[in-house]
């Protein structure tokens, strides 16, 4: 009877481990795929374009603390000569406000020339931002800036969608440990959707004609 109970516990433990591994597989995929392609501001490689992913705008219309950190990091990359043009990609009709418009205005205050900024108002999520960077703006090589908890998924998606992307960890001054932990859990769950989108080869929610804005900005620079 004792031996039977012990075997049953081992079987239940094995099932539990299998379930955890299955649930974690998409997240592990993003971590493995992004390995070697995640950097800090000081050791980031060079690329002509840096993509900044949008997120919440504050009630006053300015970027929230996470978005401000991403923009500060992107501006630092441009000022250091590691990038020339910034593609701000977010939701132009987001629940908190027009993300690309807020991003563009904020970059001006960081000393970035408006001619160095291209706005995509249809980067409705990370997948769409990466897909449109390649399909609409013709970007094949870029740095991508977001917070550390989000970076592996962003890098993985962009690389899977045809952009040779390296990620740069964004600043997050004022971000609480609770906020970052909650976002990390959300990103762990979102990895499953990312994997499903890739498997389906999902088109972006908004399709647009090719836009030469990034190429034009690089020529002007």
Residue share in helix:
40-55%
Low-confidence stretches: 15-19
CATH architecture: 3-Layer(aba) Sandwich
Q: What is the chain-wise order of helices and strands? A: HEEHEHEHEHEHH
Characterization of the model:
This protein has 221 residues and is an alpha/beta fold. The protein has a single domain, classed as Rossmann fold (3-Layer(aba) Sandwich). Helices cover 52% and strands 13% of the residues. The chain is built from seven helices and six strands; from the N terminus they run H-E-E-H-E-H-E-H-E-H-E-H-H. It has helices spanning 2-34, 65-79, 99-109, 126-135, 148-160, 177-200, 213-220, and strands spanning 38-39, 49-53, 85-89, 117-120, 141-146, 164-169. The chain has a six-stranded parallel β-sheet, sandwiched between helices. Helix 4 runs parallel beside helix 5 and helix 5 (148-160) packs parallel to helix 6. The longest helix has 33 residues, at 2-34. It is globular. The N and C termini lie far apart (78 Å).
């Amino acid at each position: 009877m004792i031996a039977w109970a012990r075997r049953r516990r081992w079987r239940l433990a094995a099932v539990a481990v299998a379930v955890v591994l299955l649930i974690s597989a998409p997240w592990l995929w993003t971590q493995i795929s992004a390995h070697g392609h995640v950097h800090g501001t000081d050791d980031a490689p060079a690329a002509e374009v840096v993509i900044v992913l949008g997120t919440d705008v504050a009630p006053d219309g300015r970027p929230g603390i996470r978005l401000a950190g991403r923009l500060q990091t992107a501006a630092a990359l441009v000022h250091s000569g590691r990038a020339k043009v910034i593609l701000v990609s977010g939701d132009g009709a987001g629940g908190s406000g027009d993300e690309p418009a807020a991003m563009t205005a904020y970059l001006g205050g960081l000393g970035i020339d408006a001619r160095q900024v291209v706005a995509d108002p249809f980067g409705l999520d990370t997948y769409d931002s990466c897909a449109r960077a390649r399909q609409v703006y013709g970007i094949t090589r870029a740095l991508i800036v977001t917070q550390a908890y989000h970076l592996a998924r962003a890098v993985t998606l962009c690389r899977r969608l045809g952009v040779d992307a390296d990620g740069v960890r964004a600043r997050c001054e004022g971000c609480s440990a609770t906020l970052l932990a909650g976002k990390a859990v959300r990103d762990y769950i979102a990895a499953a959707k990312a994997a499903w989108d890739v498997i389906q080869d999902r088109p972006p929610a908004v399709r647009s004609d090719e836009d030469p804005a990034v190429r034009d900005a690089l020529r002007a620079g």
